[in-house]
Amino acid sequence: MSLEPKKQVLFCDFDGTITENDNIVAIIKHFDPQGWQQLVQDTIDQRISVQEGVGSLFRLLPASMKDEVVRYAIGNAVIRDGFRELLDYCRDQDIEFFVTSGGIDFFVYPLLEPFGIPHDHIYCNGADFGGERIEILWPHRCDGDCPNGSCGMCKTAVIRRFPADRYERILIGDSVTDFEGARLADLVFSRAHLTAKCRELGLPHLEFSTFHDVVRGLEERQQAKKERNVR
What we know:
By secondary structure, this protein is of the alpha/beta class. The chain contains 10 helices and 7 strands. The two termini are 17 Å apart.
């Protein structure tokens, strides 16, 4: 009796992946509060956690700048080419698609709104503009199995909800927030810092520039499976 084939599930980063640029860095760089460069570098180099880094960056900005910050974040972002085609492919192939983002709700939700992704398939952080400084909220914290414990938005906690014996787990990403998730994935579509990390760890990965590359990679993987089953 043949085993039931694993169902594919896809976890996609937002900043620098769905969007061309890293929106958090772009926001902070634009408003240029003192000390932001070192915080960004310390986060990328993993000297401080993502949660500490992102929280500290936004704490540099007064909450009174909410309208300016939101307007800039939404107006500055560019969606990477082929994203709608990837979503169409996932729907056609019955692949569950989740956005797993270290980004913030005030720009993640508006930018994804035109694509019809259900809100319960979008994981991201929140923001509180009610105090003197912008405070980042963390509704999707690490579970007991996370090796870091301070991811902010814990991507591995989301991935672990889909057991490896039942799901083929595919990750798309670009940077430090994707490093731990890449260790759990059956396949990684990578760019930038994530490509370097996958090479360092010997993880299976395919580099991409646009989401057309991702669709092509998924199609080729599916075709290879069919050919193996014929033999």
